[in-house]
Design goal:
The protein is mainly β. The protein has a single domain (25-202), classed as Porin. The chain has helices at 2-13, 35-44, and strands spanning 20-30, 47-49, 53-64, 72-83, 86-92, 97-116, 123-140, 143-161, 166-176, 179-182, 185-189, 192-202. It starts with a helix and ends with a strand.
């Protein structure tokens, strides 16, 4: 572990000073399968809301593969994803069941990627992979459940650079094994594809 941290520090210190930094804001939708909540709905009914939306903030760092190369770049980005809430309200007097099921999930993805930079007034394309730390918090009546997990993801996308400062793009991601289970139930499952519109500011 110490060797990995030391190597990471050396790589960071060796990065060129003319690299580019960026901040992004993303809005999108993704796969969402609250299995346990849906099973309760099938039995007891109620008012159900499934949150497929995703709001994200990201920070990125890009640098050329070789000095003077403005086209081929490597980058790393870290984000903070907020997933839409899943909610089920049960008021089934026939079964004598009442309660409220809510599930909130957030995630911290880190992605390393290659970028083909088309420059100003042009399209750029990127592709990469990384890992995501995800956490789900569920409230079922007066009981609280939570679960965290680390999983891999694949990412790619394109953006158009309107100015030196601003770009607008489309991001696609595939989560591999983002299913969180506890005590025999599925709290959250965000495995699969997601897509988002991304606005990025470069410095």
């Amino acid at each position: 572990m110490k060797k990995i941290l030391l190597l990471s520090l050396l790589v960071f210190l060796s990065m060129p000073l003319f690299a580019e930094y960026g901040i992004g804001v993303k809005l999108g939708v993704g796969e969402n399968d609250p299995k346990s909540m849906n099973e309760m709905f099938d039995v007891y009914g109620g008012d159900k809301t499934e949150g497929d939306g995703i709001f994200s903030l990201e920070f990125l760092y890009e640098f050329p593969l070789q000095a003077g190369d403005e086209v081929n770049k490597l980058g790393i980005k870290a984000g903070f994803d907020f997933y839409g809430e899943n909610e089920l309200k049960i008021k089934n007097y026939y079964y004598g069941v009442r309660g409220r099921f809510t599930e909130n999930t957030w995630a911290l993805p880190v992605t390393g990627y290659y970028k083909y930079d088309g420059g100003l007034k042009n399209f750029s394309f990127y592709g990469g992979l990384g890992f995501t730390f995800i956490r789900t918090e569920v409230e079922l009546g007066s009981e609280d459940f939570s679960k965290s997990k680390l999983f891999a993801h694949i990412a790619g996308g394109a953006e158009y650079r309107f100015t030196q400062l601003f770009a607008l793009g489309l991001d696609l991601k595939y989560n591999i094994g983002a299913k969180l289970e506890k005590e025999g139930g599925t709290l959250s499952d965000r495995s699969g594809f997601s897509g988002a519109l991304a606005g990025r500011f470069y410095f």
